[in-house]
Amino acid sequence: MRRPYYGWAVVAASFLGTFVVFGLSYSFGVFLERIADAFGGSRGLSSLAFGVQTVAIYVGASGLGVLVDHYGTRRLLVVGTLLTVGGLAAASRASTLLTLILSYGVLTGVGLSVVYVVAYGTVTRWFDRRLGLAGGLASAGLGVGMFVVVPSAAWLLAQSGWRTVLLWLAALSGVMLLLSSLLIRDDPTAAGVDPPSGEFAGAPPTPNRQPLPEQFEGVKQIALTPAFGLLAVGWVLVYTTLYAVLAHLVLYAAGIGVPGWVGPWALATVGLTSAVGRVAIGHVADTAGRLRTFVVCSAAMGAATLWLVVADSTAGVLAFAVAYGLAYGGNGALLSPLTAALFGREQINAVFGLLSMAFAVSGLLAPLAAGAAYDALGTYDPAFFGAGVAAIVGAGAIWVAGRWAR
To answer: I want to staple 349 with a disulfide (CB 3.0 to 4.6 A). Which of 65, 141, 219, 364 is the partner?
Structure first.
C-alpha cells in the first residue's frame, strides 16, 4: 500500500506559516485605535507600524528568497520564528511610536518575511498537476488566520491591554511555527520521496544550489524582462485594495454607524471566505487556466472595493466582505503558481520574493493614504474609490504581462 504523499505534509506546514503571517499582520486594524491613543498619533501616523511591517515582509522577501533556496527551508524557518516571536515581545514593551515601528514593523516584519517566502514558494516544488489545489490549501492559512485571530484579538482587547494581547500572539505563533519547521522539506528529491505518477511531466524541480552571485544573476535576468516589470506593477495596483481594507475597514464600519461588532467580523469574514476561495478557485484554475482566473479575481477585488463607497449598512458591509474575500482568495491561491508558470520553478523562492516587493509598495502607501484621506476629509470614500479603480487597471496589466511572458 502506497504511503500518503509527503507533499501534503508540506502543504500543512505552509498552511501553518500563512496562518501565522497573515493572522498576525492582518489583525492590525483591531489594534489601530488603541495604538493611536497610546502614543497620541493620528490614524495615518499610527498606520505606519502596519505599513513598515508590510514593507519589511516583502522587501525582505526579495533577498531572503535567495537565502532560502541556498541554505534550505527548515534552517531559515527557525530563524524566522525567533525573529517573529522576539519582535512581538519587544513591541509589547514599546514606550514610543518609533520603538513600536522598529519592533512590530521591522523586526517582526523580517521574521514574517522568512515564513512568507517558505510558505508560498516551497509547495511549488512538490506539485505540478495539482498545484492550484495544493497552493490554495497552503495559502488558505491566511484566511483561516484572519478568521480566528481578528475576532480573538478583538475579544482579548476587551479583556486586557493591547500589550498583553501581543504577548499571547507571540507565544502562540512560536508554537505553530516550530511545528511548521518540523514538517517542512525542500523538495521531493532532497526528502527521498517519489511523487505520485503523473504529478510532474518530468523530474520534480529542485532548488538552485549554485554560488550566491550566480543565483542573484539568474534572478536579475528574469527581473529585467518586460513581463516581470508589468506583472509587478499590476500587483501593486490590485493590492492597494487589500491594504486599505485591512488597516481601515474596522474604523470605516464604525464611522458609518453600524454596530461595533460589524467591522471586526467583516474583516474575519474576508478571511473565512478567502480560505474558501483559495481552495475552490485554486482547484478550478488547474483546468480553467491560472492566468485567466487570476485576472478575473483581481478585477473582482477592485469591483468589490468600489461597492464600499455605497455600502452604508450592516448588510452592505458584510456583502462586501463575502465578495471581496472570495475574489481575494482566488487571487492569493494563484500568486506562486502563476509565478512558477511564467518564470519557472528553479529559483521560485527568489523570484517570488522579488515580485513580492510589489506588496511592499501598496502595503506602505495604501494604509497611509487612506488614513490621511480620512484625516483630511472625514470619509474613506475617496480612498476606496481610488483603490477600486486602480485594481481594475492592474488586472488588465497582469493579463498583458502574462501574454508577454508566454
So the answer is: 65
